[in-house]
Each structure stands twice: as C-alpha cells, then as structure tokens.
Amino acid sequence: MRFSRARWMWKASKRSSNRRGGEKILMSKIRLTKEFSFEMAHVLEGYDGACSQLHGHSYRLFVTVIGTPNDDPTDPKYGMVMDFGLLKKIVNGAIVDRYDHALVIRATAANRDFVEALRSRFTRLEVVDYQPTCENMIARFAALLQPLLPDRVRLHSLRLHETATSFAEWFAEDNL
User: Fold this and answer.
1) CA separation for the pair 88, 92 (Å, rounded)
2) Within 13 A of 140's CA, how many CA atoms are on the CB side?
3) 115 φ, ψ to 5°?
4) Which residues contact 134 (CB under 8 A, 6 or more apart)?
5) Catalytic: 134?
6) Catalytic one among 42, 134, 156, 162?
7) Cα separation, 35 vs 31, whole angstroms
C-alpha cells in the first residue's frame, strides 16, 4: 500500500498541464546504451612491454546517450529518446565499419617504411597521430560520435573494453 501511494504521488507530481491527446506525463532525462563489438589489432610504438608487439583484441564498446523522450503523440517515435536503429547506424558508420578487422598504428619517423609496406599489402589500416591505447581511442571515438547525434540527444558516456577485465571510460561531464 505504501509503495503504491508513493508511486501514485510520483506520477502525480510529474503530470504535465499540456493535455494534447489526454493526460501526459512529463518526460525525464533518459539514458540509452547500446553495445557494439569489433576485432582490431594495434601496436604501441616504443612501449616498454608486450603491447609493443603487433597484437589484437576483441573490443566491446558501450555507447550511452542521454536525452528527453519525444513528446509528440502523433510521431511514431513518441516516447523514444532515440531510435536504437539510428544509434546503431551512426556507431557502425563512424567506428565499427572503420575499425573492425583493422590495424591501428601511430605514424612515426621510425615506422614510415613499415607503414608503407603495410599499405601496399592491406586495405584495413588506420594510421593515426596518437598512440592507439584504449584511453586515446575512446577519446577519439567520442570526438567522432558527438557531431553525428541528433540535436535532442547528447553523448553521455563511452566504455571501451580491450579485454574482459580491462576497459577505459569517457564521460561527457568530465570533458566540458
């Protein structure tokens, strides 16, 4: 009984005076998360450990967006912050399609000939101006995704697993 009354009071406090099509509940900020996976190889040029060798990972990327659900009852996407299909299309186009089964390597003077030899043999090569660590890649992914999202939606966070137990996280609130 107590729970039901508290729940009713919460709903009552959220009701909107805008009554297009009946009683309407004000929408809160909602976060949506979609998981993606891709296989990628990299090498950490000049690193003093095992990751200085060419190797790969099965990456898992969690993309979280935040927004207010669509409040137009005439729109088929009424109640959605964002269509998961659109989020999938954006992330696949900007990240997964580009990095899946690719080799990511930092361009340096020392590896110029090696990079050219790789380019002559392989098409899935991403030569970058940063060390391709999990931390640097997640910051790059955030920069790629932010301008592609719809106006009412913001990138809230990213979580990139390099292994089952090792990951990096990026939060918009930490990067204002």
Assistant:
1) 6
2) 16
3) -65, -45
4) 160, 162, 166, 167, 168
5) no
6) 162
7) 13
3-state secondary structure 77-135: CCCCCCCHHHHHHHHHHHHHHHHCCEEEEECCCCCHHHHHHHHHHCCCEEEECCCCCHH
Which candidate in 35, 55, 101, 116 is catalytic?
101
Active-site residue (options: 51, 57, 126, 135): 51
3-state secondary structure of 169: strand
Left, alpha or beta for 46 (phi > 0: left; psi -120 to 50: alpha)? left
101 has catalytic annotation: yes
Hey, what domains does the chain have and what are their CATH numbers? 27-175 (3.30.479.10)
For 48-100, what is each residue's pLDDT tens digit? 999 999 999 999 999 999 999 999 999 999 999 999 999 999 999 999 999 99
pLDDT tens digit sequence for 95-150: 999 999 999 999 999 999 999 999 999 999 999 999 999 999 999 999 999 999 99
